[in-house]
Amino acid sequence: MQFIYSIGIYFTGFILKIVALFNTKIKLGVKGRKHTFHILKQQVKATDKTIWFHCASLGEYEQGLPVFEKLRAQHSNYKIVLSFFSPSGFEIRKNSPIADVVVYLPLDTKKNATRFIELLQPTLAVFVKYDIWPNYLNTLKEKKTHTILISANFRRNQIYFKPYGKLFKKALFAFNHIFVQYKDSKTLLESVGYKDVTVSGDTRYDRVGNQLLKNNTLDFIEKFKNDKLCVVVGSSWPEDEALFTSFINDKLYADVKYIIAPHNIKTSHINSFISKTNAKSILYSKMEEQILDTYDVFIIDTIGYLSKIYSYADIAYVGGAMGTTGLHNTLEPAVFGVPILIGPNHEKFPEAKALINNGGMFSVKHQSEFNETLIKLLENSDYRKDLGSKNLKFVKKNSGAVIQILEYLRILGCFS
Fold first, then answer.
1. Domain-embedded: residue 375
2. What's the pLDDT tens digit per position in 223-269?
3. What's the confidence (pLDDT) of residue 6?
4. Are residues 75 and 155 in the same domain?
């Protein structure tokens, strides 16, 4: 199995180089990995004490961030190295304040893993959720580096629990401890003999909870909303936006403000949405010297504001589940105590199922169901507030994963 895996990794590297000729995102990753070892040699000294954080992409970074921030604050004498596998994580967070060095993770060959870890010599390695690389993990185990996996979520159909998945199952045992989100994941790990596991919950609850401690004021959103009912559409895809285009054009409810923060902020996509929507619309990039409260639709054609914008929502819609691209973060609006709508394709998102079962979020399958649900929420203030309150209470109830992880590390004493 090890031989087949090694051949597969080398073949993957070759394919990525070919695809990179035609795909800008893949090209960034291929090019970035070439510089990793040079960056580490330049920025990590043999005398440095280091902690290594690894995330597959941006979503895992956001998930791990509350843990990263605490470790950064508690162990400021350590150099933090943050690695990403995907360009969508690295390119957005390459200047992250929680890290001293940010790099692409080289492909998981035995040679790369040995070289990478020998350059870092980490005291602690923290992996997030599911990016489990056998060669890196086995090398960490050989070096007796304390290694943990946080916010993990396992499913029975994954390779770790298959008869042919021995190499990946072995990689699990390289972790000194695994913190899982749900009891089902603990049960799966125990079924293959892994016992060092704690059900700590999802660190994203702690992450969004921290948002309440920040200043979420945005003057331009206040001017646009002007104390009217406001629906915030976060991380929307065309399938999501089509629902709102129809709802707005059919004038099913008057005097409502809509804030659209599309996942794709390319001009061609946004222009297409505007051309289909019969409402007075304004772009964030064109709002200067405009009287914002005279517009009905505010399109956020930039990144970085959505988590604050949700604080102005009376109702939120989170995109990705009306199509097959994957549901975006529903906890971000939930923490502000607003009811939430999503599409039907959310099977792989346990927090979505939990929020629906808790009563504060609705999954809508088609336009008529969307219209009916949205109108009911718009028409009844007490109903909205009751459902929103359920979401906020649910987030608070499920927070605390970070405390458990930090307490484990404190008792372990790996920084003493």
1. yes
2. 999 999 999 999 999 999 999 999 999 999 989 999 999 999 999 99
3. 84
4. yes
Do 363 and 237 share a structural domain? yes
Indicate whether 167 and 301 sit together in one domain.
no
15 located within any domain: no
The CATH number of the domain where 68 resides is what? Answer: 3.40.50.11720
3-state secondary structure the chain: CHHHHHHHHHHHHHHHHHHCCCCHHHHHHHHHHHCHHHHHHHHCCCCCCEEEEEECCHHHHHHHHHHHHHHHHHCCCCEEEEEECCHHHHHHHCCCCCCCEEEECCCCCHHHHHHHHHHHCEEEEEEECCCCCHHHHHHHHHCCCEEEEEEECCCCCCHHHCCCCHHHHHHHCCCCEEEECCHHHHHHHHHCCCCCEEECCCHHHHHHHHHCCCCCCCHHHHHHHCCCEEEEEEEECHHHHHHHHHHHHCCCCCCEEEEEEECCCCHHHHHHHHHHCCCCEEEHHHCCCCCHHHCCEEECCCCCCHHHHHHHCCEEEECCCCCCCCCCCCHHHHCCCCCEEECCCCCCCHHHHHHHHHCCEEECCCHHHHHHHHHHHHHCHHHHHHHHHHHHHHHHHCCCHHHHHHHHHHHHCCCC
What domain range is 151 assigned to? 2-6+22-201+400-412
Tens digits of residue pLDDT in 288-298 = 989 999 999 99
pTM for this one? 0.85
Residues 381 and 250 in one domain: yes
**268 and 335 fall within a common domain:** yes
